[in-house]
């Protein structure tokens, strides 16, 4: 309890000193805006935004100030990814792929303004929840993340792939799993993580580094979306009812359980080293679908679905900073870029970190989330206007931005061919009602699964019992099994009380 | 008429541009350094630090970017290779890049580069805080009793830390169960979670965890002892006799310019590098981050990298982990 009080007191002190310095606001507004732009442009990621700013600030500015800019951009970019997800059904970053599931149907129903407003609120509260955990429960979460070894990570990755396969299928669950397994197979291409042997590279050096996530993401979501848009009669823009953007207090209060639950899930996922915002959104969305009363309406424009995804990916930021600050192990790719910024300034994060710095980071996160909320609510009215632009004019522009985004990861022209190839495959899969999201999740989580699964067996000398003799692994294994078994027709029939359309 | 006047103006501007370009000395425009490893890693951090210092000695700015991926950082090296050798594109690299050729990432020997070495951090062997082993002798004795069963973490096959582990095995005549990780941080994390019994990474990477009591250091793999705060770390050379045949094998982190660049470019970069390395900022940075300062460049650094290349390439070849036979690339046996 004493610890709690000193942390909170220290936090208020930091917050006041931060808020009373006018330069803070200059940094905050610029960096959050930059972050939102990076997040909103398809293919440009939060990692890229933070990396570029790390290069710009270097050790030329005081660390206190560069941290404001870096964290501001991080928060902004994770939030900004939700704009194209909702408005265009193209996730701006991998983190907001789950946001598109319910965000875009809402926009199509003319509730885009409401969706943007709710997203902003959820991102805001989500960030604050993650930050709260960073402030108060840092040591508890650290204990959890320190005890997660290879078997748990492998099962978690598998759970993520199976879960997205289960959730995304419109008719047969099997189709979602097939899509997820294709993604998993794609992740096998390249140098294998254990022995550094080449796999499925056919002697082509481009394939040795494996398939990069960004071109696959853009190919899977943006290309088919653009093709569909161009095929449809797009001579006039969609009708847009802007309506009320700032949500009513009552609505937020009613949705609060969803937001709070998603925030806690997001923080937990973010705190696991190597698993970040990209996964947090999906897991929370999956949990929401099972727990919420309107779970069967997820995917058709459910506000709860939107909130589940969006609160979680922003909460993951606070979570990802926990192992970074107290172990020196980044919890997500943008956190790795932050690690570089700290090290250039002679700050070595780890168990010996100055506790004052954690409080400073918490204060920045709080300020950044307020900035993000205000800017988001003010600019939503402008952003939503893109829907009024005729698609024949707008979509080619999106295609150019998407291409730039895919090119930005550094694999050269081959990454663009990859994007197009995945795009055509995705288009065909969409036409046959195979969900494409599990494929992308497979590509994102596949390398993690591959590496940790094989390493678990390497350490246990091939003994499979390593996946159920550890308590954490046993729970996760049970979840995986339950997920698959629950889809068997015979088991489904037992649950006649809670009848649902096949998921 | 009007058109030809316009053309003439264009030509004049062009001529002026070209004229001034040849007349001006290197460097007259900004330099870009492409780091082949990711943001937040040792090579990235060192390059951002040294470039900021060298900038003060040069009339232009230096931008640091990351060009990651490929095999042993080959994407970044190929990227810089394809830029003109005019000294405006440098490559930020480390000793681990010497395996790119034998692993099939590109087809150049490392003497393609003219390297500058900023420094490196010595490797050490550590165990989890609650480990039964308290000295390197305990560990070696346990490994002799149960050969090939004690799981040891190091970054992927062919990394500097893996080679240090191999050298320790040869020197002490023991075998561990090598468990590769993608980088040092995940390996250390695994040691803290008790997934492996020991981890070999650099002092710079372990220092905060040692100071925080999360890892227990057993010995350095260099002839010199080290210390983190009050915790003294003895040298493994003191207790294991045959180690000096195989070790030390040290990190060399820095940057490079095309070896084909002009002497003027090399001299200018060399002068700025020397001044930057002599400054207090670098010294203070190295001390806080547990790095040993290098400062070699030119022939001395080329020779150092040649030795590393030969050692790494043939060790990997013996392990059967190469795509290309080192002898076809003209890499001599160590």
Structure explained in plain terms:
The complex is a heterodimer of chains A (503) and B (334). Chain A is an all-alpha fold and 503 residues long. Chain A has one domain (2-492). Chain A is 73% helix and 1% strand. Chain A has 22 helices and two strands. A two-stranded antiparallel sheet of chain A has the order 1-2. In chain B, a hairpin with a 2-residue loop joins strand 10 (226-228) and strand 11. Mean pLDDT of chain B is 85; it is low at 10-23. Chain B folds into two domains: 26-120 and 251-329, D-Maltodextrin-Binding Protein, domain 2; 123-245, D-Maltodextrin-Binding Protein, domain 2 (3-Layer(aba) Sandwich). In chain B, the strands form three sheets. Chain B has a six-stranded mixed beta sheet, with helices on both faces. Chain B has a five-stranded mixed beta sheet with strand order 7-6-8-5-9, with helices on both faces. In chain B, strands 10-11 form a two-stranded antiparallel sheet. Chain B has eleven helices and 13 strands. By secondary structure, chain B is α/β, with parallel strands linked by helices. Chain B has helices at residues 2-23, 42-57, 74-81, 136-145, 160-172, 184-192, 203-211, 236-239, 263-278, 280-288, 299-319; strands at 31-35, 62-66, 89-94, 113-120, 123-128, 151-155, 177-181, 198-202, 215-220, 226-228, 231-233, 253-258, 292-293. In chain B, helix 2 crosses helix 9. The radius of gyration of chain B is 23 Å and the shape is globular. The interface between A and B is large, with 51 and 57 residues.
Short synopsis of the structure:
The complex is a heterodimer of chains A (503) and B (334). Chain A is mainly alpha-helical and 503 residues long. In chain A, 73% of the residues lie in helices and 1% in strands.
Task: Sum up the structure in keywords.
heterodimer, A: 503 residues, mainly alpha, 22 helices, 2 strands, disordered C terminus, B: 334 residues, alpha/beta, D-Maltodextrin-Binding Protein, domain 2, 5-stranded mixed β-sheet, 11 helices, 13 strands
């Amino acid at each position: 309890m004493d610890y709690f009080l000193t942390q909170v007191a220290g936090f208020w002190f930091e917050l006041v000193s931060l808020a009373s310095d006018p330069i803070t606001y200059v940094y905050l507004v610029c960096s959050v805006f930059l972050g939102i732009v990076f997040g909103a442009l398809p293919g440009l990621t939060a990692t890229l935004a933070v990396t570029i700013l790390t290069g710009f600030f270097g050790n030329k500015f005081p660390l206190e100030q560069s941290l404001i800019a870096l964290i501001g951009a991080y928060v902004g970019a994770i939030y900004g990814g939700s704009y194209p997800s909702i408005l265009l059904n193209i996730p701006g970053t991998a983190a907001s792929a789950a946001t598109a599931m319910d965000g875009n149907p809402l926009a199509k129903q003319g509730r885009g303004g409401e969706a943007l407003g709710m997203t902003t609120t959820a991102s805001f509260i989500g960030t604050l929840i993650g930050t709260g955990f960073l402030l108060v429960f840092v040591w508890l979460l650290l204990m959890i993340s320190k005890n997660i070894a290879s078997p748990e990570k492998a099962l978690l990755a598998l759970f993520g792939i199976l879960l997205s396969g289960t959730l995304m299928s419109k008719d047969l669950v099997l189709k979602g799993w097939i899509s997820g397994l294709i993604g998993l197979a794609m992740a096998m291409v390249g140098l294998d993580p254990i022995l550094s042997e080449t796999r499925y590279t056919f002697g082509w050096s481009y394939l040795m580094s494996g398939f990069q996530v960004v071109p696959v993401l853009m190919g899977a979501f943006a290309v088919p979306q653009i093709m569909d848009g161009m095929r449809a009669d797009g001579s006039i823009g969609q009708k847009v009812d802007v309506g009320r953007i700032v949500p009513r207090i009552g609505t937020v209060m009613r949705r609060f359980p969803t937001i709070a639950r998603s925030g806690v899930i997001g923080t937990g996922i973010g705190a696991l080293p190597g698993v970040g915002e990209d996964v947090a959104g999906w897991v929370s969305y999956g949990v929401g679908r099972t727990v919420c009363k309107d779970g069967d309406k997820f995917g058709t424009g459910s506000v709860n679905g939107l909130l589940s995804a969006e609160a979680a990916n922003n909460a993951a930021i606070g979570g990802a900073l926990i192992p970074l600050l107290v172990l020196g192990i980044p919890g997500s790719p943008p956190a790795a870029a932050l690690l570089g910024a700290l090290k250039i300034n002679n700050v070595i994060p780890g168990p010996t970190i100055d506790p004052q710095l954690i409080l400073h980071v918490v204060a920045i996160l709080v300020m950044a989330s307020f900035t993000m909320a205000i800017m988001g609510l003010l600019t939503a009215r402008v952003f939503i206007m893109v829907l009024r632009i005729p698609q024949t004019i707008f979509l080619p522009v999106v295609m150019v931005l998407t291409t730039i985004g895919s090119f930005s990861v550094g694999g050269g022209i081959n990454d663009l061919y990859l994007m197009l190839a995945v795009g055509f495959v995705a288009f065909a899969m969409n036409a046959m009602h195979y969900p494409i999201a599990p494929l992308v999740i497979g590509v994102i989580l596949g390398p993690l699964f591959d590496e940790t699964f094989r390493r678990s067996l390497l350490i246990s000398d091939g003994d499979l019992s390593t996946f159920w003799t550890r308590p954490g692994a046993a729970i996760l294994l049970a979840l995986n099994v339950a997920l698959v078994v629950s889809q068997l027709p015979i088991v489904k029939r037992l649950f006649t009380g809670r009848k649902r359309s096949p998921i | 008429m009007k058109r030809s006047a316009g053309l003439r103006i264009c030509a004049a501007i062009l001529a002026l541009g070209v004229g001034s370009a040849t007349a001006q000395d290197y460097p007259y425009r900004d330099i870009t350094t492409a780091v082949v490893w990711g943001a937040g890693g040792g090579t990235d951090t060192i390059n951002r630090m040294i470039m900021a210092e060298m900038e003060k000695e040069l009339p232009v700015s230096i931008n640091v970017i990351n060009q990651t991926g490929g095999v042993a950082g080959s994407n970044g090296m190929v990227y810089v290779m394809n830029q003109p050798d005019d000294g405006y594109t440098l490559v930020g690299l480390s000793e681990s890049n010497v395996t790119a050729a034998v692993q099939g990432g590109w087809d150049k020997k490392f003497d393609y580069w003219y390297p500058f070495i900023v420094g490196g951090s010595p490797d050490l062997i550590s165990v989890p805080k609650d480990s039964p082993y308290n000295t390197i002798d305990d560990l070696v004795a346990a490994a002799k009793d149960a050969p090939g069963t004690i799981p040891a973490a190091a970054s992927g096959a062919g990394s500097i830390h893996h080679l240090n582990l191999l050298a320790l095995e040869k020197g002490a005549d023991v075998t561990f169960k090598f468990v590769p990780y993608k980088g040092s941080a995940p390996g250390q994390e695994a040691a803290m979670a008790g997934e492996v019994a020991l981890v070999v990474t650099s002092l710079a990477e372990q220092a905060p965890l040692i100071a925080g009591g999360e890892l227990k250091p057993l010995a350095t793999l260099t002839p010199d002892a080290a210390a983190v705060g009050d915790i003294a770390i003895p040298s493994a050379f003191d207790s294991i006799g045959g180690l000096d045949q195989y070790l030390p094998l040290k990190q060399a982190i820095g940057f490079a310019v095309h070896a084909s660049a002009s002497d003027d470019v090399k001299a200018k970069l060399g002068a700025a590098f020397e001044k930057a390395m002599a400054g207090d900022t670098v010294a203070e940075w190295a001390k806080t981050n547990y790095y040993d300062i290098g400062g070699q460049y030119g022939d001395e650094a080329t020779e150092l990298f040649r030795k590393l290349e030969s050692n790494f390439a043939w060790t990997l070849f013996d392990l059967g982990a190469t795509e290309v036979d080192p002898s076809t690339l003209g890499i001599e046996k160590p």
